[in-house]
Amino acid sequence: MNKPDIILRPTKISDLDILFEFQLDEEGGYMAGFMPEDSTDKVAYLSKYTKLLGDPEVNNQTITVNNIIVGSIAKFVMANEAEITYWIDRNFWGQGIATTALKSFLNDETARPIFGRVAFDNYGSQKVLEKCGFKKIGSDKGFANARQMEIEEFIYKLEI
Fold first, then answer.
1. What is the average pLDDT across 18-28?
2. Is 0.90 surpassed by the pTM of this model?
3. What angle do CA 46, 47, 53 make, to 5 degrees?
């Protein structure tokens, strides 16, 4: 089997329609946990991400596999700390795409330390972070809109 050609490129406004569709996946949203209050509000999504594309503190990248958009990855700053977020279309889960994309992203994104947060039961994302050198440093609780309840999230940190 040929290895997929995984490429990261700066996110363009024209990518947002496809990326929005990914967040409509209920299982993906459940695993992410922390979603917008109304993840089906396309106008709000497009408005938010169009603004973020112009924010110099945010590094938004689109993940493609063999020229097909399969997800996104970004660095953003919250409470003066760099954080990582990523989303892979559920049709591409379990293929190593998130790990490969995050490793590639971290080669170019130099903000350190950088943090990742993941739902306590999202074992796939926990493994991705660990394979990329992140260490679990603690946990927190927060309201997960996708689950309509408070859940525990694990906090990961990458120093170098």
1. 94
2. yes
3. 85
